[in-house]
Specification:
heterodimer; A: 436 residues; 70% helix; 0% strand; elongated; B: 127 residues; 3 helices; globular
Chain lengths: 436, 127
């Protein structure tokens, strides 16, 4: 009942809510974190004796506030608060505080905590590191491993980021509707960055240690956990639900994305039985809920594309017409050459390589430094028998590869070029897109 | 008599389990349900998705209202259930105790006798 492993899990689960509330009390990130640490230490002493409290987050907020106030008391005279021993087995005080902190206060607390991590002056890697450290409570070594930097370097990055936030000041006024919507969208984008850091990390270097891989997957799982929390706090926001759906549908495929040698396995070749069916089911359920609002947005559209792939029992059963339509809609909502590039994969399936090439050729200038553009283009050209141009495009792609795995992947196709006429299926291999 | 054993817990805590922890708990629970199955006493078992996936239809005077989220914002959430054939309430409590032991941490089981039961298997595959 009270084994320490369970207590650890409960502390992790309560962390975002507790640190967020403590930040509101103390208006200082460091003090809020210290107060939470102190509350955790006291929980480790008290919970095995007294049993877990009914509401761990409320307990930690209450005790953390006392502990933090103890620290402040040295400088100023404040009224002492009851000791946690008096509240640990009986929940009057706990219930009291939980009631005071109603759902809407929690909501804005957590949103604020996530929002301060996305300070626009911070580079995205620092935003990610900060959110994982402060909100999720990952350790500095864990974060450092996934970013492949030393612990000291990561410690320094996080300290600097915190100092920048402290200087900028934390926005404590309760946000109005518009400000809340803005914060929500900023936080959503940051969570997606955290997720993608985990999603793409494995692809960035074949030589990564298994340990680094595991920490990267922790990122993706943390992003999903935080997105779930956001969906619970803001249940009627279809884009937040869409974001969670997108993450679940993409992460569900991760067991099939690399083979035993660490080589990339593209969507078409993945062993679909390795996909996580429970995660796909939850993603599809979330998307269904989101679409009911009839307020589509980029996350819902990308999730719908991922769901279309997930629904196909085999690669040949993929509904490319639906995918084309979804990408067209995404192009209208959020125009980007990368979206058009992704759509050309569907066009290749529906109308052939000539049509696909015609769609992407106008993108040449804007995507000249983009690995996937040249990889896909090389594939389409070789499918059309334009060998010399294909070789050139593949060579461009290799020079732009983000990882040895990507370069090796293109090289395999370059080796095959000339040996046999390309099939449509092989071209599709080269069309791995960023999101699908 | 058929009893429903309804499981309540903090879903945040359950959601924070690692895959390994989750698998280990599920394996221990399967041992208990496996035994009940062999004895021919096990009815359907369901583990629900997180309440973030829930939608609520509230009946009102006019059109029912469809709301995102679970029926009630509670500290502990309804996470799943077992249906078990038991001679007595004590029997059902013994099973709930076994389930509690296999599943560490907080939470509660509500044991409620079943009033009406219609066994059926949906055609759609469940994952």
């Amino acid at each position: 009942m009270n084994d320490p492993a369970w207590i650890e899990t409960a502390l992790t689960a309560a962390r975002p809510q507790a640190v967020a509330a403590l930040l509101r009390y103390f208006r200082d990130l460091d003090r809020a974190e210290e107060a939470f640490q102190e509350a955790c230490l006291r929980a480790l002493k008290s919970w095995p004796k007294n049993g877990p409290p009914r509401d761990p987050a409320a307990w930690l907020i209450f005790v953390g506030r006392n502990a933090g106030v103890d620290g402040v008391r040295r400088d100023s005279r404040l009224r002492p608060l009851p000791e946690e021993d008096q509240i640990s087995d009986l929940s009057d005080a706990e219930t009291d505080i939980a009631e005071k902190l109603d759902e809407s206060a929690y909501r804005d607390d957590i949103l604020r905590l996530l929002f301060v991590c996305c300070h626009p002056d911070l580079p995205t890697t620092q935003q990610i590191a900060l959110a994982l450290r402060i909100v999720s409570g990952l350790t500095v070594p864990q974060i450092a491993r996934a970013f492949l930097v030393s612990e000291a370097a990561m410690e320094q990055r996080i300290t600097r980021a915190k100092a920048k936030i402290a200087r900028a000041g934390v926005p404590f006024e309760a946000p109005d509707r518009e400000a809340r919507a803005e914060r929500l969208s900023t936080v959503g984008a940051m969570l997606y960055l955290v997720f993608n850091e985990g999603y793409s990390a494995r692809a960035s270097d074949v030589a990564r240690t298994r340990e680094a891989e595991r920490s990267a997957s922790v990122f993706a799982e943390e992003a999903i956990r935080l997105a779930r929390l956001m969906v619970k706090l803001f249940p009627a926001e279809p884009e937040i639900a869409g974001l969670l759906a997108l993450m679940l549908l993409q992460h569900a495929r991760s067991p099939a994305r690399f083979d035993a040698d660490g080589q990339i396995v593209l969507l078409e070749d993945q062993n679909r039985t390795l996909w996580n069916g429970a995660m796909i089911a939850e993603g599809v359920a979330m998307l269904d809920k989101a679409l009911r609002h009839a307020r589509p947005g980029p996350y819902q559209l990308q999730a719908a594309i991922a769901a279309t792939h997930a629904r196909a029992k085999s690669a040949v059963e993929t509904d490319w017409a639906a995918i084309d339509l979804l990408y067209r809609t995404l192009e209208a909502v959020q125009p980007s050459p990368v979206v058009t590039l992704n759509r050309s994969v569907a066009i290749n399936k529906l109308a052939g390589p000539e049509a696909a090439l015609a769609l992407i050729d106008p993108l040449a200038e804007r995507l000249s430094g983009y690995f996937y553009f040249h990889g896909l283009r090389g594939g389409l050209l070789s499918e059309l028998g334009r060998r010399a141009e294909a070789v050139e495009a593949f060579n461009r792609a290799i020079s732009l590869a983000n990882s040895p795995a990507e370069a090796a992947h293109i090289r395999r196709h370059l080796d095959k070029l000339g040996e046999a006429p390309k099939t449509a299926r092989e071209t599709a291999h080269l069309s791995r897109t960023t999101n699908v | 008599m058929l009893y429903a054993i309804l499981c309540y817990n903090h879903e945040d805590v359950v959601g924070a389990w690692s895959k390994e922890e989750d698998d280990a708990v599920m394996a221990r629970l399967m041992k208990i349900t496996g035994k009940l199955q062999d004895e021919g006493r096990l009815g359907p078992v369901a583990r629900l998705m997180p309440t973030s996936a829930a939608t609520t239809l509230r009946k009102g005077a006019d059109e029912p209202l469809v709301i995102d989220g679970p029926f009630a914002e509670t500290k502990e959430q309804f996470l799943g259930f077992y249906l078990v054939d038991c001679e007595t309430l004590d029997d059902a409590l013994t099973i709930a105790r076994d389930l509690a032991e296999a599943n560490p941490g907080g939470g509660s089981y509500e044991i409620r006798p079943v009033g009406f039961y219609q066994p059926a298997t949906p055609k759609a595959e469940t994952r």
